[in-house]
Design goal:
Elements (H helix, E strand, L loop, with lengths): L6 E2 L10 H12 L10 H21 L7 E4 L2 H15 L6 E5 L4 H12 L3 E5 L9 H7 L4 E5 L13 H10 L3 E5 L11 H4 L3 E5 L10 E5 L25 H39 L3 E3 L10 E6 L4 H10 L2 E2 L15 H5 L4 H5 L1 E5 L6 H21 L5 H4 L1
């Protein structure tokens, strides 16, 4: 099989913008530049586009109203807004917040920040697949618990959480449920009403929209304070002139996801399963990270014992393949992933993990190519590793 020029399998770190999204954005970069808060016709055109995009995103998650969608600069801001905004506004009820131990750092670090302000924070354990321990959640909930933050699916290991069961447990104690759906949005169906979600974080780029745009769904009646103050845009919850071109692109990406999600998810799931099966069957001491079936369609997280994941990534890059070792948001640290440690992996096992995340442009031929080259890469690196058992070297 000939070597492809470039194969991109790092969609968890950043997705290409869909050409249809770019096409929808161009008029609002070139021609329609009015401020959506202005009352003249230029402003009206921008405001109209803004609200149309809001409605498309509301439809994607079956929100009860487009007004429940608050635009932000991205998932990190949305997570901070949800956690800090709910905590500050509901301090009269209590000062206890719960999150899972495998949340994205844009959830974990705001929770740690709240601890410095006198809040009590509990991080829930997960099992070997990354599923939240529901019994532990039930035990940790108190009358003074104001917020529980659990991701819809994990970006590093792909495990999907039982959100509806979680919401029922949380609401029995009259706490709010915040769900970070960054990794899941646009990949699997999300219904905030049926799932019982009070606040939901969304990211534009994670569904092939532009970077620098996100949203926070806030259910009607949820008590939340703004964390950015200014001109009072977005119902007073997020001040600052809206990024109209980006939001238009976000709306178009949501529209495409509504129409194409099922077929694309089925296609990606087939490629994912083929990739996982090919790697595990052809390479000894290779193991899957995350749940074997209840996982995101794009996610193939595999660990290879006795070698460093970073070495595998460099070798793959030389062969034209881009993959990752986990979250790009924390990739510069030398510490092993907190997610992989939380599911019970040893440090050396976590360091040997590689994450392939598939996308719209990936093909079966590309998956076959990765399956073909990986055994030799792993064999060569293991031959140089002092950790490799002699019997494995043959």
């Amino acid at each position: 099989m000939s070597t492809p020029k470039k194969i991109y399998m790092d969609h968890v770190a950043g997705k290409p913008v869909d050409p249809r999204v770019i096409e929808a954005m161009i008029p609002f970069i070139k021609d329609f530049y009015g401020n959506p808060s202005s009352i003249h016709s230029f402003g009206y055109e921008s405001k109209k586009a803004l609200e149309e995009a809001r409605a498309k995103i509301a439809k994607l998650i079956n929100a009860e109203s487009p007004e429940s969608i608050i635009f932000t600069s991205g998932a990190t801001e949305s997570n901070n807004m949800a956690i800090k905004g709910v905590a500050y506004r509901n301090i009269d009820k209590g000062k206890h917040v719960i999150a899972s131990s495998i949340e994205h750092m844009s959830v974990i670090n705001p929770c740690k920040y709240l601890k410095t302000k006198g809040f009590d924070v509990t991080f829930l354990p997960v099992d070997k697949y990354g599923l939240v321990d529901l019994n532990s959640l039930e035990r940790e909930l108190r009358e003074e618990t104001i917020l529980v933050s659990i991701q819809y699916a994990n970006n590093e290991i792909g495990t999907i959480q039982p959100i509806r069961e979680i919401s029922q447990i949380v609401h029995r104690k009259n706490a709010y449920l915040h769900v970070d759906a960054t990794a899941a949005n646009g990949q699997i169906p999300i219904d905030v009403q049926k799932d019982g979600i009070d606040l939901l974080t969304l990211s534009s780029n994670d569904m092939y929209g532009p970077k620098g745009v996100g949203a926070l769904y806030v259910r009607s009646g949820v008590r939340i304070e703004p964390i950015i103050h200014g001109g009072g845009q977005e119902r007073g919850l997020r001040s600052g002139t809206e990024n109209v071109p980006g939001i238009v692109g976000f709306g178009k990406a949501a529209e495409i996801a509504v129409n194409e999600m099922q077929a694309e998810s089925e296609r990606l799931s087939r490629l994912r399963d083929k990739l996982i099966k090919g790697l595990l069957e052809s390479i000894p001491y290779a193991f899957l990270n995350g749940h074997p079936t209840n996982r995101l369609p794009d996610n193939a997280a595999v660990r290879f014992n006795f070698i460093e994941g970073e070495s595998i990534l460099l070798s793959l890059d030389m062969m034209g393949v881009a993959a990752s070792s986990g979250s790009a948001c924390t990739a510069k640290t030398l510490e092993p992933s907190h997610v992989l440690l939380a599911i019970g992996l040893k440090h050396e096992e976590a360091h040997g993990s590689v994450l392939f995340t598939l996308g719209r442009q990936n093909t079966e031929d590309e998956v076959d190519y990765v399956i073909q080259i990986m055994p030799n890469i792993v064999k060569r690196l293991r031959a140089m590793s002092p950790l490799t058992p002699k019997e494995l070297l043959g």
